[in-house]
Amino acid sequence: MSKEISEGRQAAFYVGTGLQILGGLLFASTFVTSAMHFGDFTNFEARAKSEMFRAISGMVLLVIGAIVRGIGARGLAGSGMILDPQQARQDLEPYSRMAGGLMKDALHEADIRLDGKSERVVMIRCGSCGKLNDEGAKFCQECGTPTEFTRQS
Ligand SMILES: [Zn+2]
Description:
mainly alpha, 2 domains, two-stranded antiparallel sheet, 5 helices, rod-shaped, binds zinc ion
């Protein structure tokens, strides 16, 4: 079980993001050039071909980028590329931990404890009569004997 997303997956995520940006720019550039040459029919066929090529390769890059990015973020099984629920659970573990951590933070912020225990209290047992006294007590509340704690220090 891994707590962190592996470096390979991190790299895939950023490469995928880069491909998406590149694809988006390539795709958008066709609108820019066609707007720039609006009403200009010189060399129209060659430009149309170039725009078509950029639009298609831009879309392909967008799709590939999205897939690579998804695999990087969620792993092969976690992103549904291979059918393996057990592996998917492992791939998505960092996110499960994140969700659990967020929940823990929220509960902590709301002062809700999951283990049912209240704040820990330290008591000192009297060496003479056995009564439990508060942590700071110098003498037993029952018999007045100096507590172990004070005798030792
Ligand atoms: Zn006592």
